[in-house]
Specification:
7-stranded mixed sheet, globular, Spore Coat Polysaccharide Biosynthesis Protein SpsA, Chain A, about 240 residues
Length: about 240
């Protein structure tokens, strides 16, 4: 990397008015982060306003296009050699994602991924809880992603669906376009490894808003599993697996 590589934080967000401002403030307080861009993916609440008030540059998508499209829109609006992808619901714990940037800046790896550990950090939002280990409703999706990554690349990640990632812009350009929806992370990992990029996981005690067990939450989990399965099948076809 260059002596002073620009680091661009990109936050895809949909209906995250409760947490996006604190997430933006945490990122803006990180000394290595040069710009913070929030991509409002068709929100129906005040996400864009809260993000802008917190100091982020906001890119607004007129309708919901999915995480891959939101990330791509954010990348196009930034100039950083290093991209830092951060979920909008991390709140104050978003500060910890700074630990992903170092290994990329030093050239140790091309992508650093947060391995989500249970725990809380000072200043967590009320109503937020530690990200769960494998299970807690995500077990099927996580298991599917883990098996696919291992079978197609030989790598065994602990947090295959982690959205918190620092990577060189060249990695993103080499793997796009990515599948829409919840399959973006697993496809990003598989394609990056297939193209010879170096990846590592960094344990971080991040927090987020916990998904409940209502009808809409169960539907959300089912849709997540299906979209990950579709992404996995696409990657299998690409590598002949």
């Amino acid at each position: 990397m260059t002596a002073k590589a620009v680091v661009s934080a990109i936050v895809p967000a949909r209906d995250e008015e409760a947490t996006v401002a604190q997430t933006v403030q945490a990122l803006r307080g990180c000394p290595l982060v040069d710009e913070v861009v929030v991509v409002d993916d068709g929100s129906r609440d005040g996400t864009a306003v809260r993000a802008q008030q917190a100091g982020a540059r906001v890119v607004r998508l007129s309708k919901n296009q999915g995480k891959a499209a939101a990330l791509d829109a954010g990348v196009r609006e930034t100039e950083g050699e290093v991209l830092l992808f951060v979920d909008a619901d991390l709140g104050a714990s978003a500060t910890l994602t700074l630990l992903l940037v170092g290994p990329v800046l030093t050239g140790t790896v091309d992508m650093a991924i947060a391995h989500l550990l249970p725990g809380r950090s000072p200043g967590d939002n009320p109503g937020l809880a530690s990200r769960p280990r494998r299970g807690a409703g995500l077990g099927l999706a996580v298991g599917l992603a883990c098996r696919a990554i291992r079978e197609l690349t030989g790598w065994e990640p602990q947090s295959p669906l982690s959205g918190q990632r620092a990577l060189r812009r060249a990695v993103w350009e080499a793997v796009r376009p990515l599948p829409p929806g919840f399959g973006v992370e697993v496809a990003l990992t598989i394609r990056s490894l297939e193209r010879g990029f170096r990846l590592m996981e960094v344990p971080l005690p991040l927090v987020h808003r916990v998904t409940g067990w209502g009808i809409s939450d169960i539907w959300h989990r089912a849709r997540q599993w299906w979209q990950i399965r579709q992404a996995v099948e696409q990657c299998r076809r690409e590598v002949g697996g």
